[in-house]
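Milestone M4 deliverable, item 7.
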Amino acid sequence: MLQLCYISTARPSVDAAAIEAILRTARTHNAAAQVTGLLLYNGRRFLQVLEGPDHAVRSIYDRIATDPRHFAMVQLSERTIDAREFAAWDMAYQTLALDHGALCDRIEQLTQGASASVRALFTSYAAI
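Output delivered:
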């Protein structure tokens, strides 16, 4: 099973409606492809982890890479995993609009089953 993490920058035109559309599409496609993951959005940048069958994760990642709603996409990690770290979600989502304490608690909850390196990545991103 493959786990892939990337960061990208949202176009200025991305608003709440665009985020909802992204989530609807992601959840539908991910469920069908048996891909799970987590998406964080801070109003400017996306941080996402995808995990599942190698071919499905690569296919979804390639489709995301061509999405005009963001740019400057950088793959941060790619690794083989034995078990899902985000098995509960077709696509968990969190904005960074919560106060710092609540946000840290929520990130801790969302990444509870993740490896230390993935947890650190999401925790660090939330602290920016």
